[in-house]
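Pasting as-is:
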Amino acid sequence: SYADDTVDASIAPSELRFLVVDEAHHIYEPVAKQSAEKKHLRSAVNDLIKHSATVVFCTDMSQADRPDSIRFPIAVTRVQLRQVVRNSRRVVEASMAFLGAERGNIEAYSDQAGPPLIPYIFKPCTCETSRQQTYTAFVWQAMEELQANYSGLPMHGNTAILVPTSAWAARLRTALRAKDHAHKFDFVDARTGASSLAGTTQSASVGNGQSQIIVDGVDAFDGMERSVHGACMGLIS
C-alpha cells in the first residue's frame, strides 16, 4: 500500500507477472464515492493490470459500505478465505458482529483464546482539561504494562491507539510526547505510520531509535492493521 495514494512510476509494466491489489474494496468502490486521489490510484492500478499475467484482488467485504456494488475491471474467480491466521480465537469471535451473513463461515486457525480485553476504569472527568490529563495517564500506564507483559514484542509498527476523532488524536499525541521524557516513542498519525515499511532498517525503530506508535481517530482504521490495538473511547461515563 502507498501512504500518498500513488503507484511507483519506476516499475515498468513489462516487469509485472503477478500483481496483488490489496484493500481492493476501497479502490473499486463506486466511483461517485471516491476522492480525486482514489480515482487516480484506481486508474494507475488498472494500467498495471493490463500488463499483468496474474492478478489477485484482496478484499474484506465487511469493510465495504456496499459489497454488491464493487466491480473489478477484469473477470475474476471468487475465493473466500475462511480461516483467520493472524488473530486469536477471542478476536475472531468478537469480529463476528461485523460479518453479517458470513459470520458462520469464519473460524480461527489457532485454538489459542488469546489475551482478554483489559478495561481501565476511572471516575468521570469534570472538564476537558481533566479528561485529557486522565486519558493521557491511563494510555501511558497501558503502554508500560504492554511493554512489561510482552517484552519480546517490538512496539514499533505493531501498536495503534484509536480514539473517537482525529482532533482528539492530535491532542493526545501532543500530551503523550510531553510525557515521554526519555524520548522512547514517536507518536504519529495512521497515514505516517503506513508509510513505514516493515522488513526495512526501520522495522525495529525509526531513524532516531524511537519506536513509532500510531495514535489516530478510529475512522483512520478499517480493521486489525497492527498487532496491538488500544481503544481510548470513553464508552461509559
